[in-house]
Design goal:
Radius of gyration of chain A: 16 Å
Oligomer: homodimer
Strand content of chain A: 5-15%
Shape of chain A: globular
Largest sheet of chain A: 4 strands, mixed
Strand order of the largest sheet of chain A: 2-1-3-4
Number of helices of chain A: 11
Order of helices and strands of chain A: EHEHHHHHHHHEEHH
Structural class of chain A: alpha+beta
Largest interface: A-B, 21 and 21 residues
Helix content of chain A: 55-70%
């Protein structure tokens, strides 16, 4: 069993989490699985037609300042996007369809940087093409494959799986039946993984 | 300037924060001010007639499990209250009216323990009398004073001050213009206090 990192490309607190999780997991010796999903359907199920950070302005004001502080502390570049939330559907389809490809973690980080540091529109195909091509991947061809009916269905099923797990926000770390919600719970989730996994179950993955 | 600890007696994550903040602040050399307020008006302003943990069941399920894990990690006794949220109005009036009395921090902790470890109804006058009397305070007399019009007004004004500060949940740590929301941000708030206060401003309080 691995530690699952459930994230959404539009999610603000997923940005620092996505940028730092791989290095942290490696130093802790914890195997991770990248699990993109969509928050839109999750929020709609709670009766929200928009991000709670837009629906509840005090919460939104706090989040932007908090994210700025967190990124400064982690030395992660941050520029507040001129549009929020941006539509991460196509980026999520790419990350979901090619989940096990070796370039996916770096692709995920480049999309987050585009959104939260370069203020680029990550729903724009050419932005995503450039993210892929900067990793020496054939952008247009991969994007076409990620828009197949099978790929769309895979992300839809993964989002349903998130809801079935009890996920209600992002990022969420999942360790067996346990959820840990938020960028500031990464370390706790890693510790939990290490102290609760049977040696054999971890070993299969290493 | 001190670090302000804004809390609500019904708030679940305020429980571990209230129990551990004084010892942490002392070891860090940070002066704290206890700031009880009411979440009810704050939530109503966001269109919620109940705790978000009741309104959004997935979030509520997560919170109860998370709180259980946090308390276990901190060796804080925890029993899920049979009623949630409990009405902390009278307890908040007591803590607000007598804010600077030396018995207030221990009173706050005893009310939180009553709610989240002993499953007692903290809106019940006799429960609060017992909390006060266990600290060798005249329970009935203090409760009577806490129900004066001036006391009611003090808590009302303090709750309005919370909203004016941008507070939208509890616990919230306030350091000058900066907010830190949540039990898991206590350490960050303390660090912020220590690295951003002028030596002179801190010295006045020590």
């Amino acid at each position: 069993m691995a530690l699952e990192f459930w994230f959404e490309f539009a999610s603000t607190y997923s940005y620092p989490a996505a940028l730092r999780i791989e290095a942290l997991a490696r130093s802790e010796g914890v195997p991770i699985v990248w699990k993109p999903f969509l928050l839109g359907p999750v929020f709609r199920a709670q009766g929200w037609s928009d991000s709670p950070f837009n629906l509840f302005p005090a919460k939104g004001r706090y989040m932007w300042r908090d994210l700025e502080r967190i990124c400064a502390e982690l030395s992660i570049p941050f520029r507040r996007p001129s549009q929020f939330p941006r539509n991460g559907l196509l980026a999520a389809r790419i990350a979901c369809w090619f989940a096990t490809a070796p370039w996916v973690p770096e692709f995920v980080r480049s999309v987050y940087r585009a959104n939260f540091s370069e203020d680029l529109d990550i729903s724009n195909i050419s932005v995503l093409e450039r993210c892929l091509e900067s990793l020496s991947q054939p952008g247009a061809a991969l994007i076409q494959q990620a828009q197949s009916p099978e790929s769309k269905e895979k992300l839809r099923a993964q989002t349903e799986a998130a809801v079935a797990l009890g996920i209600f926000g992002a990022p969420t770390l999942v360790v067996g039946p346990e959820l840990f919600w938020g960028n500031d719970r990464l370390e706790v989730a890693m510790s939990w993984y290490k102290s609760h996994q049977q040696a054999g179950a971890v070993k299969q993955l290493t």
